[in-house]
Specification:
There is one protein chain. With about 450 residues, the chain is an alpha+beta fold. The chain has one domain (about 10-95, about 120-295, about 340-445): Outer membrane efflux proteins (OEP). Helices cover about 60% and strands about 10% of the residues. It contains 10 helices and 4 strands. The protein has a 4-stranded antiparallel sheet, with no helix packed on it. Helix 5 (about 125-190) runs antiparallel to helix 6 and helix 5 packs antiparallel against helix 8. It is elongated and about 135 Å long. The relative contact order is 0.16. The model is unreliable at about 1-5 (pLDDT under 50).
Length: about 450
């Protein structure tokens, strides 16, 4: 009973979670218990090609492999530290052959077992074990954070890639249309060998038509470059060398939920693994204070030796064999260390203060990310409605301008402006749709979705 009491205390503060003030609801949504994060990622993304790409990334991505290796490292450190709570037992054997004077040679055999144990009176070893366990759990949570980020990065890059694909289609259609208009304009200009035109349009019309062709051609080259870079970025996330990426659903066919349930803000404390990792590191820092304070107190070590020895190997375990044993407790107390222990305690306290701030910062960042994503989704949905309406209006305006130009009612400049504005409106609408899909993905990530096996 006395021994249990002796090792039952542990110096240093016990961990208490810091008080966190969470908003009652998000700015753009009332409080609700359901959350988009409740969907597993393979049920969240409905494009089979995208889900296959995510699966490949979760297998091959090097950042994720590094995070998994760090879990194994932390687990090994925890297991090693925990072993100090138990005695260490070693065994050894010894053989000696010798002689004294003219006496015949003799053999001596010995088998020894030793036990060493530090009595954890002040809880130093328990605090270090507590810290190692927390660091192991933090490594697991960090791995989950990497997985969430990886899934979101693959999805966002894929959506941007599909947006670029659609922009390339628009640019090529515009190039073909502009090339046809340029050819027709040159016919109307009726350029002769002397370089002058004698048709019904001026050279200015021809040059204006050329600018639209060059503009579309430049856009094609720019988008093709962006596609190559996006494909390479995506393959890097997949852990693959540069190359092409398969395509699935077009941009307009990508799923997004009609309603965006974000859940309660306080749920982020339990769901987001980066917050969990920050708290585990805080637990570890708190435990290290106790380990540092324990250095003020004496260290009690127990050493025991038990063995047998005999002049004959086959008599080593007989009743007549000589027995060897010893028991040696040792107490070591700090007397003078020039402030080294107090400095260690001060360092541990400062590290805890840093961990508290990091924990609070992780929570504030989580609230901000969710609120930003919700605001972006609301605004981008409204923007997409306006952009697509703008495209429809510009499409009709272009059709009317083309009709009026062919009938000789309006000038070629009106037709060229209408075509230019339509081209720009189409590209902008595609970009807005891609941005919306990325924003929904960012919300899913910010809510902590994508790492649990719901």
């Amino acid at each position: 009973m006395g021994c249990a009491l002796l090792v039952g205390c542990a110096v240093g503060p016990d961990y208490h979670r810091p008080t966190v003030t969470a908003p009652e609801s998000w700015r753009t949504q009332p409080a609700e218990t359901n959350s988009l994060a409740g969907l597993a990622w393979w049920n969240y993304y409905h494009d089979p090609v995208l889900t296959n790409l995510i699966t490949i990334a979760l297998t091959n991505n090097l950042d994720l492999r590094i995070a998994v290796a760090r879990i194994a490292e932390a687990a090994g450190n925890y297991q090693s530290q925990r072993s100090y709570l138990l005695p260490t037992v070693n065994g050894s054997g010894d053989y000696t052959r010798g002689a004294v004077g003219n006496a015949p040679p003799f053999n001596e055999y010995a088998l020894l077992g030793s036990l060493s144990y530090e009595v954890d009176v002040w809880g130093r070893i328990r605090r270090l074990t507590e810290a190692a366990q927390a660091q192991y759990l933090a490594a697991e949570s960090t791995r989950n954070t990497v997985q969430i980020s990886l899934i979101a990065s693959v999805a966002s890059t894929y959506f941007n890639l599909r947006g670029l694909d659609r922009q390339l289609e628009i640019a090529r259609d515009t190039y073909n249309s502009s090339t046809n208009v340029l050819a027709l304009t040159k016919i109307k200009y009726n350029e002769q060998a002397d370089g002058h035109g004698y048709g019904i349009v001026s050279e200015m019309d021809v040059r204006q038509a050329e600018t639209q062709v060059y503009n579309a051609s430049s856009t094609i080259a720019s988008v093709e470059q962006a596609i190559a870079l996006a494909e390479n970025s995506l393959r890097y996330l997949l852990g693959l060398n540069p190359g092409p990426i398969p395509r699935g659903q077009p941009l307009t066919g990508q799923w997004q939920p009609d309603a965006i349930p974000a859940g309660l803000p306080s749920d982020l404390l339990l769901r987001r693994p980066d917050i969990q990792a920050a708290e585990e590191l805080l637990i570890a820092a708190n435990a290290n204070i106790g380990a540092a304070r324990a250095a003020y107190f004496p260290t009690i070590s127990l050493t025991a030796l038990l063995g047998v020895q005999s002049v004959q190997l086959n008599d080593l375990f007989s009743l007549g064999t000589s027995r060897i044993w010893s028991f040696s407790p040792q107490i070591t107390a700090p007397i003078f260390n020039a402030g080294r222990i107090s400095a260690g305690v001060a360092i541990a306290k400062a590290q805890k203060d840093e961990a508290v701030a990091s924990y609070q910062q992780a929570i504030q960042n989580a609230f901000q990310e969710v609120d930003n994503a919700l605001a972006s989704i609301t605004d981008l949905r409204a923007q997409l409605v306006a952009d697509e309406g703008y495209v429809h209006a510009e499409q009709r305006l272009f059709e009317l301008s083309e009709l009026r130009y062919n009938e000789g009612i309006s000038s070629y400049f009106d037709l060229l402006d209408a075509q230019r504005y339509l081209f720009s409106a189409q590209l902008n609408a595609v970009q807005t749709r891609a941005n919306l899909l990325v924003a929904v993905t960012q919300l899913y990530q910010a809510l902590g979705g994508g790492w649990t096996n719901q």
